[in-house]
Write a structure and sequence with these properties.
The protein has 368 residues and is of the alpha+beta class. Helices cover 18% and strands 28% of the residues. It is built from six helices and 19 strands. The radius of gyration is 23 Å and the shape is globular. It starts with 5 loop residues before the first strand and ends with a helix. It catalyses: a uridine in RNA = a pseudouridine in RNA.
Length: 368
């Protein structure tokens, strides 16, 4: 059933910190505490950062705080790194519900809100708000079945049951695998399709462009698991780009992009690959590559908590672009009924005709 309620609890000043547990394996026996952490969790902090964490009493060894970085590990011992609470960057907390039934819920995620915990955002996420909302009503919380970039707004689908979660996850997996070969230009029929609105830089000449550039991963400063980019050795990806409005004065093009499931950052990469990155995208430049790939060496200095400073160059979670998951069409995971969900368009992504229609509707409501 359709729904337009909102929910959200304001974020506290600081989060609760985190704890990371490890049990010493045979292969790690005999290592010192600093050898263990500076090699196993190298992406978390430089050597000097881990030394600071140990000396400040943030690590326990079999339940006891240990400040000796040269303490030798024993097989089976339990290590816990206690990450201190910190103030996370600003993020919206109110979320609109677009659709809800007994099996799933569709949210209108605001730009600037991360979906799942990661990096600096461990509490200020959609998942946390879902947990808090469920706790208020003493119910199990829904789980997102796909992701949207932090700077991307629009429809986020979540499952309320294990069966719905499994079936929806299979829809997304099938939607990607059905693309076929790297050069297949046919949009296969699947059980889910997503339509986005975006504001691309420059004037796109053709009224419709099919992009089937594979997407792979490369090493990138500040992104531990690597950055997704256009890559001939990557996995197949297919985007169908339709032109809605060309704005010569602003040198921008309003586009609609249809994908089935999708690779991470697919639309950002594909639009930049054809020479028209999303307007304001701080990360991707022309060609489906980051604006700066090899020009940022690793900064071995560390922040107050011992971890690395935020990378100087842009990272995937940075905002500034206009991309909105506008429409989602899928087969219901339990009934197979065709469901269409729409997220209201931000004003920057409306055509002039749509803007006039919305303004007219608002005026009509005011006059009633």
């Amino acid at each position: 059933m359709a729904c337009r309620r909102k929910f959200g609890i304001p974020w506290p000043e600081c989060n609760d910190g985190l704890s990371y547990d490890d049990v010493v394996r045979i292969s790690d026996s005999g290592l010192t505490l600093i050898e263990f952490y500076s090699t196993k969790y190298k992406s978390s902090a430089p050597l000097q950062g881990w030394l600071q964490r140990i000396k400040s009493g943030q690590i326990t060894f079999d339940g006891r705080v240990v400040t000796d970085s040269n303490a030798v590990l024993r097989v089976g011992s339990k290590l816990v790194y206690h990450r201190l609470p910190w103030k996370e960057p600003d993020a919206p907390h109110m979320i609109e519900v677009l659709y809800e039934d007994d099996d799933m819920i569709a949210l209108n995620k605001p730009s600037g809100l991360q979906v799942l915990p990661g990096g600096l955002f461990q509490q200020r996420t959609v998942l946390t708000q879902l947990q808090w909302e469920a706790n208020l009503h003493k119910k199990s919380h829904p789980v997102p079945v796909h992701r949207l970039g932090r700077g991307t707004s629009g429809i986020l689908l979540c499952a309320k049951t294990k069966l719905a979660r499994a079936r929806l996850a299979s829809y997304f997996a099938d939607g990607t695998s059905n693309i076929g070969g790297k050069r297949n230009t046919k949009q296969e029929i699947g059980k889910i399709a997503k339509i986005y609105r975006g504001l691309a830089s420059g004037i796109v000449e053709n009224d419709q462009v099919t992009v089937n550039q594979p997407i792979g991963v490369v090493k990138y400063p500040g992104v531990a698991k690597g950055l997704y980019v256009a890559s001939e050795s990557g996995k197949p990806a297919l985007s169908v780009v339709s032109i809605l409005e060309r704005n010569v004065q602003e040198n921008s093009t309003l586009v609609q992009v249809k994908i089935q499931s999708g690779r991470p950052h697919q639309i950002r990469i594909h639009l930049s690959f054809i020479g028209h990155p999303l307007l304001g995208d701080p990360l991707y430049g022309v060609g489906g590559q980051p604006k700066c790939l090899d020009c940022d060496s690793i900064d071995e200095s560390f922040a107050e908590d011992g971890g690395y400073h935020r990378p100087i160059k842009a990272v995937p979670g940075d905002c500034g672009y206009n991309l909105h998951a506008h429409k989602l069409v899928l087969s219901h995971p339990l009934t197979d009924e065709i469901i269409e969900i729409n997220a209201p368009l931000p004003s920057t992504l409306q055509t002039p005709e749509e803007a006039k229609e919305i303004a007219s509707m608002k005026q009509t409501f005011q006059d009633v």
